[in-house]
Design brief:
Protein name: YobA family protein
Organism: Aliicoccus persicus
Helix content: 25-40%
Pfam family, one: DUF3221
Shape: rod-shaped
Keywords: Membrane, Transmembrane, Transmembrane helix
Radius of gyration: 26 Å
CATH topology of one domain: OB fold (Dihydrolipoamide Acetyltransferase, E2P)
Strand order of the largest sheet: 1-2-3-5-4
Largest sheet: 5 strands, mixed, barrel
Number of strands: 5
CATH superfamily of one domain: Nucleic acid-binding proteins
């Protein structure tokens, strides 16, 4: 009768929990995330409205947005975002303060994104 090597047995016994931990960790790390977890919030004043998108600027008051021309708006604003809005864009007017939820932002100036949802801020 051949005797089994206890070192091999202990090595296998030690590797099994590590392997299970590794599989569990990889499963959690690469699982799809809820889209709401990936959303970014943009807040600002609407400086321009077209048929498909709005120009949202940060760091300026409503009065400043209404007084400045397009070039000055982009220079004076601390942030500017061109946001495509697919629903209810007719509810938005220049000078409104809004919050927009987006999931992807293209790095440019102004940044570009598509709104998942938006909310007009009441005074």
């Amino acid at each position: 009768m051949k005797r089994k090597n206890p070192i091999v047995f202990l090595l296998i016994l030690a590797c099994v929990p590590f392997g299970l931990f590794l599989v569990f960790y990889l499963f959690l790390g690469f699982s799809p995330r809820d889209e709401e977890d990936l959303q970014t919030t943009l807040e600002g004043v609407v400086a321009e409205v077209t048929e498909e998108n709005v120009l949202l600027v940060e760091g300026l008051s409503v009065d400043e947005v209404l007084e400045l021309d397009d070039e000055a708006l982009l220079e004076e604003a601390t942030g500017a975002h061109r946001v495509t809005i697919t629903e209810n864009i007719d509810d938005i007017e220049i000078g409104m303060e809004i919050i927009v939820w987006v999931t992807t932002i293209a790095e440019s100036y102004p940044t570009q994104s598509t709104a998942e949802d938006f909310e007009v801020q009441e005074d």
